[in-house]
Amino acid sequence: MSITLTEKAAAHVKSFIAKRGQGAGLRLGVRTSGCSGMAYTLEFADEVAEGDITFDSHGVTVLVDPKSLVYLDGTELDYAREGLNEGFKFNNPNVKDECGCGESFKV
């Protein structure tokens, strides 16, 4: 099982953590939401919680709870600019369908 970041995403996360002045890493997860059933969660973590599974990718610690890992296994997190928009993009091989707005997915 693994979760990775592209070099571009890792650089962006490192920059944010440096600006914050603290941080143990980036926490990824999923929650029930949206028209397709599940949505990604992404936040900076100041500490590793009990039960967290950790991955190191390009010098960034990625933290995931065991329940979310089932849905995120194999995911690559990228940081992309598309026109005037920029943000993190989840490349998740487990996704079977996504809603039209791109906010939720189904596995």
Describe the protein.
The chain is of the alpha/beta class and 107 residues long. The protein is 20% helix and 45% strand. It contains two helices and nine strands. A four-stranded mixed beta sheet has the order 3-2-5-4. A hairpin with a 3-residue loop joins strand 2 and strand 3. The longest helix has 14 residues, at 7-20. The mean pLDDT is 88.
pLDDT < 50 runs, ≥5 residues: none
* Quaternary organisation: single chain
* Neighbour order of strands in the largest sheet: 3-2-5-4
Question: Which percent bin holds the helix content?
Answer: 10-25%
Query: Count the strands?
Result: 9
What average pLDDT do the residues reach? Answer: 88
Biggest sheet character: 4 strands, mixed
Beta content: 35-45%
In short:
With 107 residues, the protein is of the alpha/beta class.
Topology:
Blueprint: E1 4-5, H1 7-20, E2 25-33, E3 37-45, E4 53-57, E5 60-64, H2 66-72, E6 76-82, E7 85-91, E8 97-98, E9 105-106
Parallel strand pairs: 1-6, 2-5
Antiparallel strand pairs: 2-3, 4-5, 6-7, 8-9
